[in-house]
Amino acid sequence: MFDYYRKNRSRKIHFFSVLSFALIIFIVAFSGNLISKFSSSHSIAFVSKSSSQQPLKSTFVQKPNFSKKKEAHIIKEEVQDVDDHVNLIPPFNLTVEQRICWFKKKLPEFSILKSSRLSRQFNSRVNKFLNSRNCIVKFFMTWISPANTFGRREFFALETLFKSHPKGCLIILSRTLDTPRGVTILNPLTELAYNVVSITPELSFLFNRTPVETWYTDLKKGNKDPGEIPLAQNLSNLIRLAVLYKYGGVYLDTDFIILKDFSSLRNSIGAQSVSANGNWTRLNNAVLIFDRKHPLLYKFMEEFALSFDGNKWGQNGPYLVSRVVERLTMMSTEKYQLNFTVLPPISFYPVDWIRVSEFFMKLNTRTHSRWIDAKLSQLSGETYGVHLWNKRSSKIKIEKGSIIGRLISDHCLFCKDIYRS
Question: How far is residue 52 from each of residues 17, 43, 56, 329, measured CA to CA in Å?
């Protein structure tokens, strides 16, 4: 009896097991087919029922819907970008002869120095972009670092720029951002019809018929000592001069918070520091505002070619513009003919790089709160943009209620994750 019951129960269990397994297979196959059909007709998997099947749009950087083949290409491209950035930095403790030898061997790996199908379209792309838009102000930036290092703080710079200049145009000279990843980074702005684009520069074109043409030719032949400082930094110093000389407009570093409209400014450079009697002691090239083919830009490039030294920080950047303008100041007649203005530190450099951390802090004291309110009041009246000295401040947390936090909050577009950056 017991054996019969056990055998009969076993048959039932076996029957139901087979039936259950078959049912599971059917459900999986049916679901897979349903999902496949749904996916083929929708580019985004999750939609709102209340929005008539329209995809939800993010207010910040969106991840592109790439195929596996494209994703693999992008990953390879990003690795190459990182490699390029590292390869532009020479080993330490080399003699000049050893560094030139190293540079000649590495030249084929430096993508920024190469001409490509995309870079050869540089001039036509710039002109097409500018001519197709009614640009109230033309802005230029450079980004030679890998695309994946363009972070929230850099994006805040773009937000504040367009908050102050909704009808402005921004061209970012960058090979690494002139990519699908770069398009994705800028997507939140372009979706709102702001005029921003990344374009791969053609350095041979930019430097053609300028005082640095021969210098650049010698560099590409490996006949120049690039110095210990990353070549990318010095190339950025030079590119900003050349692009303004060719097109005119405003050059800005990517570590600025823009506070107000630049439309009233022409042919200007900002002082970084002044003496007790009010005379400037150092200028900076983090912001430059000049007409096309302005003679001062020409003189800056002449100085770059004549005095290039890749071993001294600032030699080919802030110190360069300071040297040239100081010489011209001694020749008052020539300065008048060149027609340019030196703006006071409050215009762009209201805090020195040594004390910039104070702008990121918020102490819970009445005295500090009053100081912050007074400083913000001063900045709102006299400052066009605040330079963040990113090399020093990039690792400093933005504290809630700090000067930087409140400036970004007041001048951002999306205002996303300000205190997480």
Answer: 42, 15, 11, 66
